[in-house]
Amino acid sequence: MKAANVAWVPVIPSGIPQRLRSVGGNAPYQPYLDGLADDVYLKAHEHKSDVYFTGQQMEDNTVFVDWTHKNSNKFWNTQLGYLHAAVPFSGVWLDLNEPSSVCTGVCYWDQKAQHPVQQKLTYIPSGRNLEEGTISLDVIDSKGNLQLDTHNLYGVQQAAVTDQFFRSTLRQRPFIMSRSSFAGLGKFAGRTLGNNYSKPSYMSYSVTGVMMQNIVGIPMAGADICGYEGDTSADLCARWYTVGAFYPFSRNHNSKAAVAQEPYADMFNALYGKTAFTYKQIISNSMHNKMSLVRYYYTEINMVQKTGGTFFKPLFFDYPNDAGAYNHQVRNVMLGESIKLGILADHGVVSQSNKIYFPKGTWCPIFIIGAVRCKTYTVGTEEAVSTDPWTFQLHLKAGRIVPF
User: Fold this and answer.
1) Is residue 389 domain-resident?
2) What was the pLDDT predicted at 351?
3) CATH number of the domain residue 356 falls in
């Protein structure tokens, strides 16, 4: 793959299967046995501290690495090393690392605590079962900490150990994406926003979702372009590619049960409306736009890493005294300090005007055919734009020079 200039980023779920049935049938999975030898798995609860907690993910019964254990770094480093030796990878996508489990708490009643800690809580945030879709809150780590107190840290702990593998073992800059996050994740990894739906409303939500990750210190973030759950359409997917091209992290991700949404799928050969453009051409154009901005993205995100701040941010972050900058947040985005994006990310969600906003000042269009026509606004102004799926407005702030 490297010879073909193809980067491979494997999906690695948080659970270690006890048996990998798709490969070895009922034979024990070797990484699982290696972890047993190192005693690196989370335990059921304080009264069963000699029993490894068993959850369930895609390969049925799984155990979960205890990142506080003294042997966990060595175990994880060794397993990633085995994988890299077999198929050299360029990065890692850490998935289901909340950690997720299809059971509600325990999968086997003999691992259930006699007096579950959740039943002792005087207040339960959200009012729902806190073990829904995840492992038991009574699970303990090697330090005696309950999952109740450490649950949110799991993804960050895994990302930190994975980051160490890239830096210390491979001696290369890490590329790590994580589904789970907590304070500090941005030091080690980027963030995928998790499974979404193939609906216009979720395309709209994605913009503020990426903004939020940037606000909390995770600049490398993105949503599943075209949607994950449910069937997308050629029109929605093409529009989402236009929006998603400006995410710091752009990825098309789909569920097995949904219609194919790769850009080469047959439905994208159709023409858009009465134009001569196919949806595939619209998608391809979006990809080229993203690639042409890579130098700028690298530069700005590097500055964020060194000096702090945000990259993909609401317009009002840079124009807090402009009342108009607070309207239509999903349509008006600042990309770093120099470029403003105007895009109808909420198309199909609301029946309102097709306008984007320009704060007071001079703005020069990027990606325009012909002579560059800068425009000066003496006051904040809304401008109407086309509703075609390829439409976006990218403008350079006056007085700025950017790599392109």
Assistant:
1) yes
2) 62
3) 2.60.40.1180
